[in-house]
Amino acid sequence: MLQLQSFNSKAKLKELLRLAMCSGLFTISACNLPKLQTPEVGPTLPASFNQASSTSENSSQTSAMEYFNDPKLSKLLVEAITENQELKLLEQEIQIANNEIRARTGAYLPFVTAGGGLGVEKTSRYTRNGAVEEQLNILDNRRFPNPLPDFLVAANFSWQIDIWRQLRNARDAATLRYLGTAEGRNYVITRIIAEVAENYYSLMALDNRLENLKKTIELQKESLKQAEAKKEAGRGTELPVQRFQAEIQKNESEILVVNQEIIEVENRLNFLLGRYPKPIERNSSEFYNLSYPAIALGVPSELLKNRPDIRQAEREVEASGLDVKVARANFFPSLILTGGIGLQAFNPKYLVTTPEALVANAAGNLVAPLINRRAIEADYLSANARQIQALVNYQRVVLNAYIEVVNQFTKAENYRKSVALKKRQLESLEASVETATKLFLNARAEYVEVLLAQRDMLDARMDLIETKRQELIAVARVYQALGGGTVFSNASPMPIPQPQPPAPPPQ
Questions:
Q1: Exposed, middle or buried: residue 7 (CB in 10 Å: 0-12, 13-18, 19+)?
Q2: Do 349 and 387 lie in a common domain?
Q3: Quick one: 291 and 392 in the same domain?
Q4: Taking the model in full, what pTM does it have?
Q5: Mean pLDDT by 10 residues, the chain (507 residues)
Q6: Number of domains in the chain
Q7: How buried is 240 (Cβ within 10 angstroms: 0-12 exposed, 13-18 middle, 19+ buried)?
Q8: C or N: which end of the chain has fewer Cβ atoms within 10 Å?
């Protein structure tokens, strides 16, 4: 076995091999490498978000429990993180990546196999071997078996010396991709948290739409009674009665549509929670008053450490750089040591006779590509292209993360202001409906004015509900855009199972 006694001796050996590589036989093989593409420098990440002043605080470091501040929603989030099937699939992807590290670790360690063999050979008497055996039998006055049995018990040894760190670089690349897979799972966690919150808020909005339709129908039925009473008293016609009836029927039809939407949103939530359809607990009466803590964006550079998808893209850039080194090492000579030792005899009773039955061999091969290296060059250039792809993808992910934060933060702020204005608008329209109803009773206003006032109020309530829903969805999405959710809850009874990195491989 070749064993390097110290770092200095190992370094000297590598230097000698490099000199040998670039001289004589290996000059063409290793020194004439293809020219690689140079990655372009992408846009620089801004120092701050334009929509908010930079602070040391960052909402992504707030647990989901504290950020959303809703016990029923928190319960759904815990169930989604523990039972979601997509996350369970990703856990197995992480295990597969971990197994890849184990495989790469074993590649640069010695391979030792053990086994046995049994064979038989019949030699022709009229061949060189047959004639020699016949002569030996005459001289020694003993019979040389023919056919000749062959019994073997042996152990074989093979070891590729990792001179250029090719195998270790492949192991390190697999480790980085394992870490990237774990970050990919963390990113899915942030997305699932945002999706659960979005559907939860959508359910609350649908409940309020349903309640709004029912209240409007009750109000319209009162107006219908007034129109019928005026008609019976001879102070009105059939037309107001028909118009109010049509409006009631339209809203009753809308109730059925809303009920169907509630069923579908509930089932989307149930799917995220990994369970079959069942009712979703929620407190829809507090929908208009839902509030959230002030959103702290921090500085854009924090996205690089808070966003799991950015960290995953960064791991891929590092891994692709190691892939280039692995492909480059294919141009250099590789040293493989092989050997074997065992016992061999034509009769099993001689297997225990040593050293006569002992067989052994040892060899070392130093091989490098010389002519027709197209496949190696293609792999080298492809690895370089994938490295540039990974770098461009990293830049794209960072850019997308910055834009997501800006879009969702401004949306949350603008919709919050819009909700305040629509509430005041709704107060005015509610007052107009009350006024129009009184004037209609006193024959000082037409039914059309009452009808239009009620319709405008219904539309304003629907707009308010939708605007509030969009505000809350933006709040959930800005939390995801900042990378929130991986810090789930310090007091959660069911913590998120985080993947553990593999044990350091033996050196």
A1: exposed
A2: no
A3: yes
A4: 0.82
A5: 38 52 50 78 80 70 90 94 94 94 90 91 83 74 74 92 93 95 94 96 97 93 89 85 92 96 97 95 91 87 92 96 94 93 88 87 90 90 95 95 94 95 93 89 82 91 96 95 73 39 43
A6: 2
A7: buried
A8: C
